[in-house]
Request: fold
Amino acid sequence: MVKMELYVKKWYDFFEEGKVMGLKCNRCGSYEFPPVSVCNNCSGTDLSWVEMSGEGKLVAFTLNPYPDPPFADFAPYYYGSVVLKEGPAYSAMILDIDQAREVELFEKLPVDVKAEIQQRPGYKFVAFRVKK
Amino acid sequence: MITNIGELKRSVSIIGVGCTPFGNVLETPEIKGMTERELFAWAALEAMEDAGVEAKDIDAFYIAHCMDETLSHQYGAYAMVADWIGMRNKPGFHHETACSSTNVGLRHAVVTVASGLHDIVLSGGIEITNSRPMEGKPAHMREAIPPAELWYRTNYGADQAYWYPGGLSVASICDFCCMAYARKYGLTLEQIGETLNAASINNRRNGVRNPLATIAKKEFTEEAKEHGFDDVKEYMKSKYNPRLGTIMRAFNAATPVDGASALIVCPTDMAKSFTDHPIDVIGFGSSVAIPYHEVEAQWEMEKEAFAQAYKMARINPYRDIDYMHVHDCMVNTHFTVTETGGYFRPGEAWRAIIEGRTAFDGDKPISTTGGRTSMGHAWCVSAGAEITEAVRQMREQCGPRQIKPIPEVSVIHNLGHGLHCNVVVLRTHS
Reply:
């Protein structure tokens, strides 16, 4: 019998508690981030909520000078592709990139980043900050 | 490859193609004042004329219309167009996979015929991207849609309500692929930028040779001179071509346009009775994923779709492909996707683009329509226009942009935002 959880609400509620959460498959051990109801590695449906380390590597980035209206107040910001320590890749807003040193940063890739929860009107979301 | 691919129960061929000029119904003389109905009827009737059939001969139709509620204030495209193409009381279906829709529409039509259900099927698409009907007014009374709003609504193709709130823009994807490619092959950001510009220059050169590409007025070399640049490469790096991100510039990105396209298929063993030049659909592949969470320039979802198509078509991509169209709403695909699809060896495509080998008169032609940057991007419609182009290239109907020798095997790759990848392999019937 299928037991469906409120995955989306839970993920966002965990941000309110300051936690970045993912799902770990109890059969094959791989992670789903952001959380979804099935393991896309082994098709297993027995998954458990786990707190993610928040550690990751930034592998690509881009300046986003003209974001969609809901993000206009963040503009200009960087958006990047992050490989999480636990395995999944995730694209997210990247904090602390110096526009004058884009080329330098590109040449250093991959660089360490750390998850950081951000506030938006009415909800929180996860961005990543480049580690010093 | 992870998908099980079987064989079609009978071979299917394209016997007719049609495509309107691409432009803006508020401005472009060729299509000015037209609504979705006239545009789709134009493409469909042209495809019927091309195939030598009438509406009464056609058993069923598929119509793609991607942002129908936002841009056309309706969501029943099947009924909107049925009478306009003479298909009243016949089976008609609306479908969409964003900007890959009319490539997928060909797949739907082929599967319908291959199953034995129907013999002759029409599949097409309609999109007016630059304007929408005024609220509560008839469809010809339109207002321009602000570009920022168009792109925001288009970005609904990504899962906006779940993971998207991180702030993705459509343009971000190009730079991610560029950086991954540059890192893999040791290129600088400047070299990657030059490659993007070379692909855009090539697209414009094709576009000015394509009468359906109304937005392509002059080649970039000519435009550069008008702005006082002797070197087109410098012009492409100037303020006239501003950056949209860290790498990609304005001319490397699609221009939204309005238009319609249509294709007609039938069983291969019937095709010769309609046309001297049937084009067989010998393979297709499809996959869905959220590749914005991928980290390589070559996406797993695209490898999967190409693998399915090539297995079904029984071709070796490195040896057998004469022409490839890649979905170039952002022209990085000219070097990333052409390598994924085996048109080039890994790491080879960027140099080929710089050297001009991907021109229509080069040895590895890409996107001879003018691409999404110079024929324009009509959302769900362009894939069908690109298949139409391949068919016309294979029939030697492309005049000043005709590929020589005439291609016999063509591959058309399309992406729908979200993301959906669809690949089709065509071969001249022999």
Q: What stands out?
A: The mean pLDDT of chain B is 96. Chain B has 16 helices and eleven strands. The interface with chain A takes residues 148-149, 151-152, 155, 162-163, 165-169, 171-172, 174-176, 179-180, 182-183, 188-189, 243-248, 292-295 of chain B (CB under 8 Å).
